[in-house]
Amino acid sequence: MKPQPNIDAIRRILVVGSGAMGTQIGALFALAGYDVTTSDLDASALDRSREEVRRRLGRLAEKGRRSSEEVESALARMSYTTDSFAAACEADFILEAAVERIDIKRKLFADLDAAAPDHAILATNSSTIPSSVLMDATTRPDRVCNMHFFNPALVMACVEVVRNPETSDATVDTTVALAEKLGKQPVRINREIPGFVANRLLRALRAEALELEAAGIASFEDIDVAARTALGHPMGPFELMDLVGIDVAYLVRAAEHEQTGNPADLPHPSLKKMYEQGHYGRKTGRGWYDYEAQP
Ligand code: CAA
Question: What's the CA gap between 284 and 272, in Å, rounded?
């Protein structure tokens, strides 16, 4: 009989990928008491990730959101490596947050599957690649799912847990329980659909905002003001594109168009232009807003 995942058997977690999402997700697991290894092929990215975690957790302690003992012990539970597969041998749960490319993720899933203990769940943080296109690269399709966090992961409460047709109930229940251990609000998604749920809601708002701006009905700044002050959103759709990344917004849309072939799913021309100009938002200093000009 196949070993079934169980929340009480999870002690060590491997996060593959030390970009913005992997960095904050690793910190979340460590704050919840898990031993965490973050892996990346790029050693300098790991150095940046370690520094970012120190900075973010230091701020939580300064603001009294967490005690300095909690932060120190979380930091002590975190390690970093360029050898994902050695770390996978000891992991009870693996969260992949690497680059959004199916070929790379399939190879990773095959290698992680070969290294990880039988009971381990292999989850992907991907918002665009459903686990059904990764599961057959492994020998454990029933222990594969999406565990999708939102940006910034330390702050946003929602985690979508998305099952593929083979995912077992034990895998879903364990991943949901793990999200709860992090203090998150899990949302179970019973069937894969491009964009899952939250990004489909966001997409509808963003599409309308881009149309209004392109038609000159209102400036992007004023559309953001309307979203904040009329709808109570913490950020307007243009500020949010800059936070998440124009490149991410563009590539998510392009991937959806590739899946559906529907011209209505093509990235908006304004997004395409900014993507081609390399204006990716906060990370490049310029997106809809100009961050370099700010004090
Ligand atoms: N990383 C970690 N923490 C951050 C942060 C970041 N990048 N930016 C802000 N924070 C923290 C701050 O430290 C602060 O913490 P405290 O409350 O403990 O002081 C808290 O968030 C609030 O920050 P600020 O007071 O500076 O600013 P704010 O009130 O405007 O909040 C925000 C910032 C949390 C980002 C808020 O504007 C927000 O919720 N925006 C919407 C974000 C959103 O919709 N995310 C979903 C994106 S879609 C996605 O992620 C899907 C995908 O698949 C790509």
Answer: 16
